[in-house]
User: Which sequence fits this backbone?
C-alpha cells in the first residue's frame, strides 16, 4: 500500500506506513534532507513545510493526512537562491549554524504570501514557533522586511 | 562562488573508496607529504590527479581551483569564512573564488595551540590561534608560487607579484597559481616570510559575506543528520534513564518483530535498535524492554547536590587563585561589610541538531562522518576502543547544527562506531531531542560566596571571592584534583582596583557529569562579580556606572567600553516610563565588553527590550561575524538567565524537550545595539563572552526596577519574589 502525494510538484507514491511522520518520509524515503528534525514534538519549527500552502510541522503530520495533498519543502525554493526571500537572507547573512533556517524560511515564505507588509508583531506571530538556538532572530526579522519591501515593489 | 555543500564530503560524493582516495592524494601532493586524507578537496581535481599541496592549508588544482582549509569546525561561529580569510589575505586570492574544506584529524598539523594542542574547536580560540599561523601559511604559499615562477622565467623573484591567483612579472610574463602549483609544491616551505602590515589588509577586517550562507539558504548544507552512505542503516539508542546506569538485561522480542528492524544490539551505553529507516528504528525502540542497573546516579536530586556544593564550599580543599594583602583582617575591622551568595543551576546545551554521527566499520577500519568539535580525540579514542590503527580511523566533519561545547564530547561518536561494528554495516545513529536533553554533559552548578568591606568613600577596601563548582577539565583532560582548573577561574578576577583581595576556587564533584557550555566559567564568575559590584555600589549609595568607573583608573580598555556603553544606552538620562537599566562589564578571551540591559517588569519577571553592547576585541577578521556572534551570545545567555534550569528526580533529568527547557523565541528577543571599538590590539575571542554578561546586566536592571537582588538564575517569578 502506498500513499500518493505531491512534493514540490512531483507525484510521490510513498511506501512508508501511513502513520509515519511526514518529516521522515520527506527525509529518508524521498531523500529531501533540507527539512530538519529538531524536537519531534512540534515545539521548534525546524521541520516546517507547507501542506496546500499552509505551514505545518511535518514531524507532527502523519503521512496518511497528506494523501492527495501538495507538500512544499525548502527545496521548492530556487536552489540558486534567486527568490526575494533567499536574496534577503543572503543580504543580511542570516544563518549561523543554519540548522533551523529551512524551517525559518518556510515560515517566512508563508507569512509573506499571506501578508506582504507584516508589522513587527505580525512577524513575531508568524515566526515565534521557530526556535533559532544561535539567536539569529534580529537578522531574520530584518530579512523578512527586506524581502517584503522587494515583493511589494515587484 | 563555488562551495561544497558538505564542508568535507567531496570524496565521498563521487564514491571514491578511502583507500583509492589516499593513493590519489599521495600522488597529487607534491612537496609536502601531509600523510592525511584530503577529504573535502575538489573531488574532480583529486580524481584527475591534478591537485597540489604546497602546505597543509592550501591546495591548488591545475585548473586554478584553490581550496583553503579550516582546521576548525563550522558550528555557526563563522570559521568556514574567517579561517580562509586569514589565508587568502596573504595568498592574494579572491575569497569568492575559493573552496573551503574542514581539515581531517591531524593535531600535529591542525592542533589548537591556545588549548595546548588538540584539534578542538572551542574556547573562542579560532581567530586568536589562527591569526599569525594562517596568514603565515598563506604567505608561504605565495612565496613558493613566486619562487616557482622566478625559477621558470629565470628572473629575480623581487620583480614578481602574486595577485588574484596570478603571478605576473616583467615583459608581460603571467602564470596562474594553478600553472605554477606543481613546481611550487616541490619547493621547500619557507620558514621565514614577511607578513603584510595590517594597514595593507584587503580582506581581513572587511565585512565579508559568509561562504556558507548560500547552502544554508536553500536547504543543501549538509549536517551530520543528512549524511547518507551506500547500504547505510539507522540506529536509535535506548540509554539508561539515569546517566551512568548500565544494562542489566533486555527483551528485544517485540522490537525485533517491528517493521524494518535489522538487529537489536547491546553496547556499553545501552541497547540500539537498528532498522532500515530512522522511523522504524525509533518505533521499534519504543517497544524495547530494558532493565537497568541505575547506579549511584539514581540518588541525585538538585537540592541535595546544591547542599553538597554549599557544604563543600566550607569543607573541601581550597585552591588559591590570587591573594593581595590581608582582606580578612580588613573586613573584620570594617563597620560596613556586604556579603552575598550567588547560585547557578545546571544547564543543557541543546543545540538544535540532536546528537548524531555516521560510522562505518569495515575491514578493520572505521570511517566517521558527522558533526564534532574535536576531531583528533574522536579518531584516537575510537581507534583504541575498536582496536584499530589510528590511521585507519577517518573523520570527516560536516556542518554542525550548533555546538556550544556539547560536541566537544564524543559519546555519540563512540556509540555510532560500536553499533556499526556490531551490525557490520554503515550506521547513522540519531538521538531524539529527549535523548539529547536527558543525556547531556550539563553546565555545572556553582555557588559563589563573596564578601567586601567599604571605606568611608564607599569604595571597597577589601573583597573575598570563593567559587565552588565541578571541574570539567578533570574529566575531559585528566587534570588532577588539586591543580587549579583554568576553566573555573575565567573572569574570576575582575578589573576593579581593590586594595586587599582573595580569590579561591573549590572543586566539588556533585555527582552528575558536566561539560563545557558556551563561555564556561565566565558566565558563572561574571554573574557573581558583576552582581556583587552592583550590590557594593548600592550599599555605597552610588551610581552603578560611576562606581565601576571609579575603580577602573588603570584599566583604559575596561573604562572605555563601559563609558561608551553607558553613553549609547542613555545612562544617566531618564529611561522611558516603566523601563529600567542594568549594566555589566567583563574581560574574557582577551575581549573587553560592557552591556546595558533595558527592561520592564511584567508578571514578576523581566522583559528585556534592548541590550546595548560595546566590545573591544582588538583586531577583527570579519566584523559582521563579530556582530553576529554578539547577537547570538546575548540570545543564548538570555535563554539561560530567563528560563534555563535542568533538574533531577531520582537521578532522571526532568526536562525532556523545549516545552520544559524554554529558549528565547523571536517575540522575546530584545533589540541589540552593538558598537565595536576600533583597535589595533591583538585579536580577542568573540564566540562566547557576550553570553556571560547578559545575565548580570538583567539582574542589575531587575534590582533597579524592584529593589530585589536576584542572586539565583534563572530569573523566574519565584526566584525574584524570594530574593
Assistant:
Amino acid at each position: 500500500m502506498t500513499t500518493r502525494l505531491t512534493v514540490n510538484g512531483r507525484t510521490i507514491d510513498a511506501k512508508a506506513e501511513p502513520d509515519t511522520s511526514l518529516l521522515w518520509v520527506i527525509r529518508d524515503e524521498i531523500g529531501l534532507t533540507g527539512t530538519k528534525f529538531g524536537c519531534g514534538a512540534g515545539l521548534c519549527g525546524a521541520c516546517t513545510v507547507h501542506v496546500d500552502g499552509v505551514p505545518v510541522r511535518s514531524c507532527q503530520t502523519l503521512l496518511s493526512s497528506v494523501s492527495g495533498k501538495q507538500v512544499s519543502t525548502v527545496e521548492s525554493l530556487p536552489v540558486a537562491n534567486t527568490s526575494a526571500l533567499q536574496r534577503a537572507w543572503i543580504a543580511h547573512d542570516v544563518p549561523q549554524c543554519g540548522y533551523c533556517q529551512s524551517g525559518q524560511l518556510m515560515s517566512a515564505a508563508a507569512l509573506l504570501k499571506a501578508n506582504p507588509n507584516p508589522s513587527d508583531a505580525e512577524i513575531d506571530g508568524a515566526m515565534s514557533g521557530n526556535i533559532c538556538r544561535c539567536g539569529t532572530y534580529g537578522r531574520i526579522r530584518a530579512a523578512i522586511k527586506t524581502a517584503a519591501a522587494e515583493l511589494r515593489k515587484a | 562562488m563555488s562551495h561544497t555543500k558538505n564542508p568535507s564530503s567531496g570524496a565521498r560524493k563521487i564514491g571514491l573508496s578511502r583507500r583509492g582516495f589516499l593513493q590519489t592524494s599521495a600522488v597529487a601532493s607534491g612537496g609536502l607529504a601531509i600523510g592525511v586524507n584530503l577529504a573535502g578537496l575538489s573531488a574532480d581535481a583529486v580524481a584527475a590527479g591534478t591537485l597540489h599541496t604546497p602546505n597543509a592549508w592550501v591546495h591548488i588544482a591545475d585548473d586554478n581551483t584553490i581550496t583553503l582549509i579550516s582546521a576548525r569546525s563550522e558550528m555557526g561561529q563563522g570559521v568556514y569564512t574567517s579561517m580562509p580569510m586569514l589565508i587568502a589575505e596573504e595568498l592574494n586570492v579572491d575569497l569568492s573564488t575559493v573552496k573551503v574544506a574542514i581539515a581531517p584529524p591531524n593535531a600535529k598539523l591542525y592542533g589548537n595551540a591556545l588549548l595546548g594542542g588538540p584539534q578542538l574547536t572551542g574556547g573562542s580560540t579560532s581567530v586568536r590561534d589562527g591569526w599569525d599561523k594562517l596568514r603565515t601559511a598563506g604567505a608561504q604559499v605565495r612565496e613558493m608560487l613566486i619562487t616557482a615562477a622566478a625559477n621558470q622565467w629565470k628572473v629575480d623573484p623581487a620583480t614578481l607579484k602574486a595577485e588574484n591567483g596570478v603571478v605576473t612579472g616583467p615583459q608581460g610574463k603571467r602564470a596562474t597559481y594553478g600553472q605554477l602549483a606543481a613546481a611550487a609544491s616541490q619547493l621547500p616551505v619557507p620558514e621565514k616570510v614577511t607578513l603584510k602590515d595590517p594597514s595593507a589588509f584587503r580582506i581581513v577586517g572587511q565585512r565579508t559575506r559568509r561562504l556558507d550562507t548560500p547552502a544554508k539558504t536553500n536547504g543543501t548544507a549538509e549536517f551530520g543528520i543528512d549524511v547518507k552512505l551506500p547500504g547505510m542503516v539507522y540506529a536509535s539508542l535506548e540509554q539508561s534513564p539515569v546517566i551512568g546506569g548500565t544494562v542489566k538485561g533486555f527483551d528485544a522480542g517485540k522490537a525485533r518483530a517491528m517493521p524494518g528492524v535489522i538487529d537489536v544490539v547491546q553496547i556499553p551505553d545501552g541497547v540500539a535498535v537498528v532498522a532500515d529507516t530512522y522511523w522504524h528504528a525509533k518505533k521499534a525502540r519504543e517497544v524495547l524492554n530494558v532493565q537497568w542497573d541505575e547506579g549511584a546516579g539514581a540518588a541525585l536530586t538538585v537540592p541535595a547536590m546544591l547542599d553538597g556544593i554549599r557544604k563543600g564550599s566550607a569543607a573541601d580543599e581550597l585552591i588559591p587563585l590570587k591573594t593581595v594583602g590581608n582582606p580578612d583582617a580588613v573586613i573584620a575591622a570594617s563597620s560596613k561589610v556586604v556579603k552575598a551568595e550567588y547560585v547557578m543551576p545546571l544547564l543543557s546545551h541543546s543545540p538544535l541538531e540532536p546528537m548524531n554521527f555516521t560510522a562505518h566499520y569495515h575491514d578493520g577500519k572505521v570511517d566517521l562522518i558527522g558533526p564534532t568539535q574535536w576531531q583528533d580525540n574522536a579518531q584516537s579514542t575510537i581507534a583504541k576502543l575498536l582496536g584499530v590503527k589510528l590511521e585507519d580511523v577517518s573523520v570527516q566533519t560536516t556542518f554542525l547544527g550548533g555546538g556550544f561545547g556539547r560536541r566537544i564530547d564524543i559519546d555519540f561518536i563512540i556509540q555510532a562506531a560500536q553499533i556499526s561494528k556490531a551490525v557490520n554495516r554503515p550506521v547513522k545513529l540519531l538521538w531524539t531531542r529527549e535523548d539529547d536533553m536527558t543525556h547531556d554533559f550539563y553546565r555545572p552548578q556553582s555557588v559563589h560566596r563573596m564578601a567586601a568591606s567599604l571605606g568611608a568613600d564607599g569604595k571597597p577596601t577589601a573583597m573575598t571571592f570563593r567559587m565552588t563548582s565541578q571541574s570539567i577539565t578533570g574529566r575531559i583532560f585528566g587534570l588532577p584534583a588539586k591543580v587549579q582548573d583554568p576553566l573555573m577561574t575565567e573572569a574570576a578576577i575582575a578589573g576593579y582596583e581593590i586594595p586587599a583581595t582573595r580569590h579561591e576556587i573549590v572543586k566539588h564533584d556533585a555527582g552528575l557529569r558536566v561539560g563545557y557550555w558556551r563561555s564556561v566559567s565566565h558566565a558563572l564568575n561574571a554573574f557573581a562579580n558583576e552582581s556583587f559590584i552592583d550590590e557594593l555600589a548600592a550599599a555605597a549609595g552610588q551610581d552603578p556606572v560611576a562606581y565601576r568607573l571609579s575603580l577602573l583608573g588603570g584599566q583604559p580598555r575596561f573604562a572605555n567600553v563601559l563609558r561608551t556603553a553607558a553613553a549609547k544606552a542613555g545612562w544617566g538620562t531618564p529611561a522611558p516610563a516603566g523601563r529600567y537599566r542594568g549594566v555589566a562589564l567583563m574581560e574574557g578571551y582577551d575581549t573587553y565588553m560592557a552591556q546595558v540591559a533595558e527592561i520592564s517588569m511584567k508578571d514578576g519577571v523581566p522583559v528585556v527590550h534592548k541590550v546595548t553592547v560595546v566590545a573591544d576585541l582588538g583586531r577583527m577578521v570579519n566584523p559582521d561575524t563579530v556582530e553576529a556572534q554578539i547577537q547570538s551570545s546575548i540570545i543564548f545567555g538570555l535563554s539561560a538567565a530567563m528560563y534555563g534550569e535542568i533538574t533531577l528526580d531520582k537521578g532522571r533529568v526532568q526536562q525532556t524537550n523545549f516545552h520544559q527547557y524554554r529558549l528565547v523565541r523571536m517575540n522575546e528577543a530584545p533589540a541589540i545595539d552593538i558598537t565595536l571599538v576600533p583597535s589595533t590590539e591583538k585579536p580577542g575571542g568573540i564566540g562566547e563572552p557576550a553570553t556571560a554578561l547578559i545575565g548580570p546586566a538583567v539582574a542589575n536592571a531587575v534590582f533597579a526596577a524592584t529593589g530585589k537582588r536576584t542572586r539565583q538564575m534563572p530569573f523566574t517569578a519565584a526566584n525574584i519574589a524570594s530574593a
Summary: The mean pLDDT of chain A is 98.
